[in-house]
Amino acid sequence: MSQSPAFVLNVLETPEDPEGSQEPSPYDESEVHDSFHQLIQEQSRWVAEEGLELQQRQPGTGALGASGSDHETLLGPEGAPVYSMATLRILASMPSRTIGRSRGAIISQYYSRTVKLRRRAGRPQLRDMGRSARPSLRLYDLELDSAVLEEEEKRGLLVKELQGLTAAQRDHMLRGMPLSLAEKRSLREESRPPRGKRRAQRRRGLLSCCDQLHDSCVLASHNLGLALLSGLQALMPWRYALKRIGGRFGSSVLSYFLFLKTLLAFNALLLLPLLAFIVGVQAAFPPAPAGPVPTFTGLELLTGGGHFTHSVMYYGYYSNATLNQPCASPLNGSQCAPEAGSLPYNMPLAYLFTLGAAFFITCITLVYSMSRSFGESYRVGSTSGVHAITVFCSWDYKVTQRWAIRLQHDNIRTQLKELLAEWQLRQRPRSACGRLQQVAVLGLVWLLCLGTTLGCTLAVYTFSELMIESPVSAEREAVLLLLPLVVCLLNLGAPYLFRILAALERHDSPVLEVYVAICRNLILKMVTLGILCYHWLGRRVGTLKDQCWENFVGQELYRLMVMDFIFMLLDTLLGELVWRLFSEKQLKRKGKPEFDIAGNVLELIYGQTLTWLGVLFSPLLPAMQIIKLLLLFYIKKASLMANCQAPRRPWKASHMSTVFVSLLCFPSFLGAAVFLCYAVWQVKPSSTCGPFRTLDTMYEAGKVWVRRLEKAGPRVSWLPWVHRYLVEDTFPIYLVSALLLAVIYLNIQVVKGQRKVICLLKEQISNEGEDKIFLINKLQRVYERKERSRAGRTEEAMTPPALFTDDWGAQ
């Protein structure tokens, strides 16, 4: 039977186009990429117009090409596709495989960048360009183009393009090139205009004495500035120390010190307006003392009373009138009458508005920090290649000093440990029976922890009631330390019990273990503070009617802060130093205790909550918190370096900062704001002290000011309107709160949308990679067909005519 003839497309060679013989500009790469499919179709139609030859294939040649070559590519021994040398040369000449491999490729790449920077005018569309001006696939004849510019020609083009840029653009471009300094200097000298070259040659000549003196002064001032900057950086407690902590103990322990640094910034931001508008102004115009001032005995550092009561430390010291009026506090509690020409500074109004503005600024800063931390921690994208990036791209080759090299080495090693531990955790499955057992143990441990919290709460409530029933005289102020002592003992002992119970749970993830410990300690401390707030505003206000209860609340918060700092020092001394010495000397163990991240972070949040609760009654409490945090940083750092070891199960704390700031915002700051709003709007101030002594509530100071403005004249009539409709009316407050929550929600939704977009873009990149493989295979098949057609024509040309004659004669 006669077989059906098999045909193959053979593309005829066309003469080179003289206008399109030049290499396509890199400037048109984006246009070629956008219309690549259209360009292929136009090329196919052009080839069809010029002529396609249908040649009958010989029976033994290219059988695979007729059947399977159009659908698959030949595979090598390991399953990889096998391409011809011409296709491999084309692949090797792709920009993605040449950039960064040679100096000439780098120069060519930055030449294209300078062209794009210099030519910002619009360029014509690809469909409007002439056929000869388009980058043609047939131009290369499916092989590597022999007209590729040499390295020196590329260098010359780059120099010409650099000369067309401004000095700033040229320096920025040269600074970003991955070349050696000598090469950059040479390019800068060659691309400098003639005027600049003559000026440089003139500078290299003999300078006058004035020029040498001027240059020496400039260099000296520059070196002095660098020395001052390095000195200021050395004074920061979070410069080199944080790098050492992160390199030695990992990101989990480092997150505690970063959170401490954040709290320092929050307290400094809160303290500045209080010093400027309340404390500083009152210190400049001190009121006349109402009685004899007690001498300083040293016990005030613990109790907060005594001499501190008659200072700017507490609420009762501040005046309720204009500050330059020499008037003592009247016995009947009436307000001093202002004199003519007095300073128009209303201290009650300044006290109220400054605290409100400081809390509002703190709230905005907290929300911004939380959203920023959320964006940095929960970044879009995946971490599939993070191991390779850490191994091959983490080293900084600019590091030359030995201590910096050792620090960077430890940091990269710790990062690899954390990444590998996280990967191993994901690979570890758990059976259904094991999960049920773990759930049962978790339920039992949680019941025991909640029972412990309930017991601590009842103990604090009972002891506070005993303190109310047995009043303490001024001579026995040391007895007032009993309630803070009991609270701090419970806050110190309960977390150790939680830690013992947590050992029964045996969490697979150390991150989950830390989060559970934080949740339990947070419940304990927040419930304890709730009982204390009820004790202060619900019970103490009624029992201290004829006294300054605001001073008492401020002193209680001061005592709690001081006792909390003392117990933190004891915990550091006993829980870390003594335990390390005992385990080394008695137990003969080489291991050191681990740093308790959950307990220490909750201590920071607890101390900051005390500061926010007491800022109304003690405006200098943020200053005390700053001093406490600074001392705590150095003490914890020294104890960590000497007494602690890195976590036995390393883990990456990628979301810890976000969790810490969120806990600081919602339970801590929100609870303090509710407490202070209740004190300002509902509780009656003391009638013997403070700037609000003649008012029913602290908020009434704003109403008094509005009534005075209404009588002042029509010039300030808009201020009472603002107060009436924006401050007294609750709708704007609810509106601002709703907008704030909407911003937070939209920010979360935007991040989720970005994640979806990233997933879609990854899928698109994967599809484009498959498209490129498909096009490469098509090019390979076209090249194979072309080679086979050439080989067939060559065999036909070499066949002798005598063979045909013999065949006809035989027939």
Molecular structure report:
With 811 residues, the protein is mainly alpha-helical. It contains 28 helices and two strands. Helix 16 runs antiparallel to helix 17 and helix 21 (549-585) runs parallel beside helix 23.
How are the secondary structure elements laid out?
Elements lengths: L6 E5 L17 H6 L1 H15 L1 E5 L6 H5 L17 H8 L2 H4 L4 H16 L32 H13 L3 H10 L4 H11 L2 H11 L4 H27 L4 H10 L1 H34 L15 H4 L43 H31 L8 H8 L8 H25 L5 H38 L12 H21 L7 H34 L5 H37 L11 H18 L6 H23 L12 H26 L18 H13 L5 H11 L1 H69 L2 H10 L1
Antiparallel strand pairs: 1-2
How would you concisely characterize the structure shown here?
This protein is mainly alpha-helical. Helices cover 66% and strands 1% of the residues. It contains 28 helices and two strands.
What's the rounded overall pLDDT mean? 75
Unreliable stretches covering 5 or more consecutive residues: 1-37, 46-75, 121-149, 328-334, 338-343, 803-808
Number of helices: 28
Helicity level: 55-70%
Radius of gyration: 40 Å
Q: What profile does the largest beta sheet have? A: 2 strands, antiparallel
Apparent shape: globular
* Beta content: under 5%
Sheet with most strands: strand arrangement: 1-2
Assembly form of the protein: single chain
Structural class: mainly alpha
In total, how many beta strands? 2
